[in-house]
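The instructor's notes for this session suggest beginning with a concrete chain rather than abstract definitions. Hand out the sequence below and ask the class to guess, before any prediction is shown, which regions might be ordered.
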Amino acid sequence: MPQTGLKGPFSISKEIIDSAVTPTPGVFVLGYVEIGGDFIPKYVGRSDDDIKQSLKDWVNSKYSKFKFECYDSAEVAFTKECRLHHDWKEQLDNQEHPKKLDARWNCPCCKSSIGASKK
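After discussion, reveal the predicted structure:
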């Protein structure tokens, strides 16, 4: 089973998000932890500017845990989101390929050139 390479898992709450996450571009995975302790990814997402706020939008959702990583740019976050999407696509609730902010970006896995669209 592929690893996410992200920090966590953490419980999804405003307090934990406030203490663990900075408002930068980033990528996150939402899911749950099995009885054996394995994190099960169910949703992959990103923020091009404020991952902290994006994660807060998921408080009180059907997902109980999250993993994340902050990056210096939206392009790096997009690249990581694409990799996670391809690693976990079959089990994700959101199976649509990640959209890009900039038309010059391409998916590193499938070289998809899906049109630029703010996610």
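Then share the key points. Residues 7-91 form a domain with the GIY-YIG endonuclease fold (CATH 3.40.1440.10). Helices lie at 14-20, 51-56, 74-88.
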